[in-house]
Amino acid sequence: MPSISLSVSLQEEYTRLFNTCNIKTEKFPDVENIISKLSANKSRYENAVAGLKIPWYFVAVIHNMESSLNFSRHLHNGDPLTARTKQVPAGRPVDGDPPFTWEESAMDALMYKKLEQWENWSLPGILYQLEKYNGWGYRSKHPEVLSPYLWSFSNHYTRGKYIADGTWSDTAVSKQSGAAVLLRRMAEKGIIIFPGEPVIAVDDDVDKPAISFSNKVIPYGDELQKFLNRFPGIYLKEDGKPGKKTSEAFKKITGYYLKGDDRA
């Protein structure tokens, strides 16, 4: 398969898709549950990449995709740690004897993909490596379907997936939340901030806002959130409730909190 590089156009595609990513309402509880578990194991993910530049949340979402957050499974592909991997890539880790610790396997998986050499851990760089980790089959053979490995549970994915290595189904639907979807929600909640996000300049002459702070759905609340989501580094859930996160995003752009925010 031809090599796919992180071109300027591909970076722009990843950024556009991430900025317009909306989690399907019926999948939201599942996403929240996964994120709660990822956050609870943050220190273990950080220890797994200690000394490397790889973000902990990159490893965390791969762990969910490959082994459903099971620490008794290989990060490579979800095979049991009691033996070397059987599925692709088979025979990993090469060194040592099973049973392997999760940390040993995780480090081998990351090194196998040469991720310790990767320097671009911006948002597009992360999404590029996540798609590459799963393989370029969707992009090269089924470009009409955005990879569910990234976008399942969002407005960017409906159906179509590989049900086995090299076996495609037009009607199959991924039952996993995509990795990019998890990252989007983590960014919305302020759990993660991507390296290199630009700082938005604030105009001191901007008028104070008319839309009021609220933890309830209000008219035009979702429109405000859609508008704010167009700016780099802002990831809001478009639920029509302009609460704390929306007010903070508005301040980042305008210099003012929303009217009714105690911090205003």
What would you say this structure looks like, in words?
- The chain has 264 residues and is an all-alpha fold.
- Helices cover 40% and strands 3% of the residues.
- The chain has eleven helices and two strands.
- It has helices spanning 8-19, 28-40, 42-48, 56-67, 102-112, 123-134, 137-141, 148-151, 179-188, 221-228, 244-254, and strands at 161-164, 167-169.
- A two-stranded antiparallel sheet has the order 1-2.
- The longest helix has 13 residues, at 28-40.
- It is globular and about 65 Å long.
- It starts with 7 loop residues before the first helix and ends in a 10-residue tail after the last helix.
Query: Major beta sheet, specifics?
Result: 2 strands, antiparallel
* Count of β-strands: 2
N- and C-termini, Cα separation: 55 Å
Which of globular, elongated, flat, extended, rod-shaped describes the shape? globular
Report the order of strands and helices.
HHHHHHHHEEHHH
**Backbone structural class:** mainly alpha
Radius of gyration: 20 Å
Short descriptors:
264 residues; mainly alpha; two-stranded antiparallel ribbon; globular
